[in-house]
Amino acid sequence: MNLRSYIDLYQLLDGHALTHEENRAFALKNDLQAQSSLRMLLAWVRAHQNSLSSPAQSAKFCKYLYIVSLVLGVLALVLGVMTGIGLLSYSGKEPVNLIYFLAVAAFIPLFTMLLALFSMLRANQAQSLLIHISPAYWMEKIVGFFSQEARAALSKLTINPLLLNWLVIKRSQLLALLFAIGLLLALLGIVATKDIAFAWSTTIQVSPKQFHTFLETLSWPWSSLFPSAVPSVDLITQSQYFRLGETLDSGMVANAARLGEWWKFLACATLFYAIVVRFGMWLLASFGFHQALKESLMSLEGVERLLFEMNTPLVTTTAPKQEIVFAQEIHQYSRVLQTVDPHYKTTLGWAMSKNDIVILNDSMQVSSECVFDIGGTNTLYEDEKIISGLQGEVLLYVKSWEPPTMDMMDALLAIITQVDKITLLPTGTKEDGYIPTSRELNIWERKIQTLNHPKVWLCRIN
Amino acid sequence: MSHQLTAPHPKFAVVGHPNKGKSSIVASLAQDDTVQISDTPGTTIKSRSFPLRMDGEIIYELFDTPGFQRARSVLAWLEKHDVPAHKRAEAVEAFINTHRENERFSDEIELLTPIMEGAGIIYVVDGSKPYGEEYEAEMEILRWTGQPSMALINHIGENDYSQEWRRALEQYFRIVREYDPMETDPQQQVLLLESMAQLDESWRVPLKHSIVLFEGRRDQKLEQSAKTIAHLVQSMLSHLEQFRFSGEDVEDTDRQKLLKNYQQHLRALEQKSQKFIEQLWSHQHLQKEQESLLFEGVDLFSKESASIFGLSRQEMVVTGVTGGAVTGAGIDLLFAGHTLLLGGAIGAVVGGVGAYFGFDELSGIKVLGKTLGKRYLEMGPMENRNFPYILLGRSLYHLHKVAARSHAKRGAVTLTMDETFKEKWLDDQSRKSLEKFHKRFRSGDEISSGEIQAYEALVLACLKKIV
C-alpha cells in the first residue's frame, strides 16, 4: 500500500466504475472473501490499474513529489553542511562556543520534534497552522516552477487532507534528518581538517559543576557506549570562556589540545538528538502516514460500494435476453357499427351457453331464427358442424373481457366462407350491464383489423 | 444444502390464457421492469427465462410464456391419441415434436416446451372477470403434462370472481393462491415462493434459500439507500462552489452566476442520488412524468418544496433553541452550575435567533484570493438550516415511491405532493438527533467516518418508518 495505490484507486473509482457483476466475479475468482477490506481493495487496484491511461496520474504525482523532495532534500543537506561550517568557523583568535552548535544539533531538533509531535496529534484537523509553517509551503513554491501541464495534472487530484498532512509531516522529518546529516558531516569534516578549540560561554551564572551535570544528563544515551564522549568536570572547567580581555586565558592555551576533545560529545549529541531521534520521528511519521493512507483509502468515495459489491453475493433475477415482442401497426377499422341490427339469421355465442345467448339477444333486443354456441367446451367437430350450416347475416357475441384467441379467429375464418356478413358484438359482464369498456373494444378492433375482411363488422356499443 | 443446490434447479413456467397478467407476475417476482406488459393480447411471442442467480448459480428459473391460442386444437390432437394416463406426458412430448415447425401452434410449443423440460406450472387467471368454460381445455392440457402445478388468481380489475374461479381451479390444481403483482408487500412474495416450494419436495431447499436471499436483499437495499441519502445530505451541506472573476469589484451578475452554479451543482447531486436509488431498487427504466429533479415543477430550492418537506419557521426555531440550550448547558455543567445556568439560556437564545434569521438564506458569498488579478467568489457550506430537512424529505419521499412501486407497473410514476408525509418520518426526537449532524456538516469541518455511520443509522431509522 502506497500513495500510488491511493491515487490509482481514486482515479479508478472516479472514471472506471465496474459493474457489481464484474466486481463480485473478481472477488470470487481471486478468492478474496476471506481477506481484509484493505487487501481486497489493493488486489482490485493491482488488477485494474493497467486500464488507466499511461502515464497514470499516480506516476505523475509521485514523480513530481520525488522532484520536490529531492530539491528540498539536497537544499536541506547543503544547508546543514553550511550551517555546520558557519557554526564551527574558527579564526584561531577565539575558541568556538559549543553552545551554539549544541543548540542547533540538539535543542532546536528537540523543540521542532515536539512541534512535529503536536502536528501529528492534530493531523486529523484540516486546518492546522503548525502544518502550514512546515516545508509544505516550500513544496508548493517549487510546484509553482513546474510546467503548466504538470500543475494542471496536480490540480486535478483531490487528496484527502489528512493524508496530505501526514505526507508533509513525513517529508519534513526527512528534510530535518538530511539537515542533521549535513551538520554532522560538516562537524566531522572540519574536525578532520582543522584543529578547533571548543569552549563554552554564557552570561547565565552557571558553574562548571552544574554545567557538567546538565551535559552528563544530555550524554546519558551514549555514556556507557562512548565514555570518552562525555565531557569531564575538568574539561568543562578548562573550557569555560569569558570574552572580556583581548587575549585568551593562559590555562586554556596550555590545554589547547584537550579543548578539541569536545568534538566527540558534539558528534554524539548530533548523532543521537538530531539523527537517531529524528529517525525515530521519521519512523513514527511513516507509521502515521501509513495509517492515514489506510484510512484515506477506505474513505474514498465509492470504496464502500466497491467493497459491498465484492462482498455481497450477486443476486440477479432479470432475463439475460431481450424480449421479442409482437408489434402491430394500428389503424382505425373501417367496418364499425355503433348500433346492433334488430334481426339476424343466426346468433352465435363464443364460449358461452345457449341460455346466455338468449339472454343477450333479449337484452340487445335482437331476434334471430337460430341460436348456437360455439367454442368453449364444444369439440372442433361440433363447431364445424354448426358453422357448415350457417348462411345470411350472423351476429357473434364474444366476451369483451376475454382477448380474441387464434381459436376464435380460426372459427371466424370458417364462418366467413359460409355467410354474407358477420357482426362481432363484444359484450361486458352481467354486472356491468353487458357494456364493454373502450379498452376492451379497442383490443377487439385491433384483432379484427389483422383479418380486415369485407364481411366482418365490429359493433361497438359502450 | 449445497448438495441439494447442485441438483437441477427448480423451473416454473408461468402459463395461462392471453392477457391475464402472466408477464406482470413474472416482472413482479423477478423484479425486472423490462418485461413487456401490454393490454394487447399476444404481446409475448417467445418464452423468456428469468433465472434467480446467486453468484452465477441458478437458484430457480421462471419462464414467461405466450398465452394459449389454440387450446382446443391441441387437446383434440392429444385426445385423438388414446393413451393411458401414465403415457399422457409422452403424448404432449409427441405433440411438441410433431408441431415444432408449425406456426399455427408456435405459442403452445413455446409454453409447453419448458414444462416438458421439467418446469412446474403456475397457471394464471384473472379473478376480476368471470370464469369461462374455454379455460377447461387449457387446464386439461396442463393436466396431461403431468408436471406439478399450481394456480394463481390475479386481480387485474375491481370485481371479484375469485370464489367461482377457486371452485373451478381446485378441480385441476392442488394449490390455488391469490397474488397481486401490483402490490409490493414482500410477505406476499414470500408466501408465493413457499407455495411454489410445496409443488415438489426437491424444490423446497432452493426456494427457501431464495426467500432468505430476497429478504436479505431488501435489507441491503434499505441500508444502501440510507447510506446514499446520508452521503447526499453531507456532501450538499458541505459543498463549496467557487467562481472566478477578474476586476476590482464584484458585480451582481457574478453573484447571480455563482448562485446559479451552486444550485445547479446541488440539483445534479440530488439527481445522481435519485438515479442510483432507482437502479438499486431495480427500476432502471422508471419514467417520471416530470424531469427527474423536479417534483411536479417543485424545484429543490422552491418555496413549495420548503413548505411541504421542510420545517416550519416555528419548528426550526424550536430546533435551534433546543440545540443551543444543550450546548449552553454543557458549559454550565463544565462550571458546575456557577454560571447560574446562564450558558443554557444564552445558548437557547442564540440558537433560536440564528434559526429564525437563517431560515431563508442559502449561504453567504465570500471573496477570496488576490493573486495576479484573479479573484474568487465562494459560496458554501450551506447555511440554511431548513435545507437538510427539505432535502431529506424529498429524498425519502422519492425512495418511498420507488420502493413501493411494483416492477409490474408500467408508465410514468407520478410524484405527487403529500403534505402529511413529513409527519410519517420526522418526530421531535429524530429532528433533534439529525440537527446535531446537520450542524457538523454545515461547519465545513472534516467529518469522521464514525459520525457518518451514526448519521446513516439515523437516516435508516427514518427510512424504516416509511418503507
Plain-language structure description:
The complex is a heterodimer of chains A (462) and B (467). With 462 residues, chain A is an alpha/beta fold. Chain A has helices at residues 3-15, 20-29, 37-48, 57-87, 98-121, 129-132, 136-143, 148-156, 161-193, 208-218, 233-238, 250-254, 256-259, 262-299, 303-311, 354-364, 380-388, 406-416, 438-451; strands spanning 96-97, 198-199, 315-316, 336-337, 343-350, 367-374, 393-399, 421-427, 456-459. The radius of gyration of chain A is 49 Å and the shape is rod-shaped. In chain B, 52% of the residues lie in helices and 13% in strands. Chains A and B meet through helix 2, helix 14, helix 15, strand 3 and helix 18 of A and strand 2, helix 3 and helix 9 of B. Strand 3 of chain A pairs antiparallel with strand 2 (48-54) of chain B, so a sheet runs across the interface.
Question: Strands, helices and their partners?
Answer:
The complex is a heterodimer of chains A (462) and B (467).
Chain A: H1 3-15, H2 20-29, H3 37-48, H4 57-87, E1 96-97, H5 98-121, H6 129-132, H7 136-143, H8 148-156, H9 161-193, E2 198-199, H10 208-218, H11 233-238, H12 250-254, H13 256-259, H14 262-299, H15 303-311, E3 315-316, E4 336-337, E5 343-350, H16 354-364, E6 367-374, H17 380-388, E7 393-399, H18 406-416, E8 421-427, H19 438-451, E9 456-459
Parallel strand pairs in A: 1-2, 4-9, 5-6, 5-7, 7-8, 8-9
Helix pairs in contact in A: 1-3, 1-4, 2-15, 4-7, 4-9, 5-9, 5-14, 9-14
Chain B: H1 2-6, E1 11-16, H2 22-30, E2 48-54, E3 57-64, H3 71-80, H4 88-99, H5 106-116, E4 120-126, H6 135-145, E5 149-154, H7 162-169, E6 175-179, H8 186-197, H9 204-238, E7 241-246, H10 252-280, E8 287-288, H11 303-309, H12 313-334, H13 342-357, E9 365-368, E10 374-379, H14 387-403, E11 412-413, H15 421-425, H16 428-443, H17 449-466
Parallel strand pairs in B: 1-3, 1-4, 4-5, 5-6, 8-11
Antiparallel strand pairs in B: 2-3, 7-10, 9-10
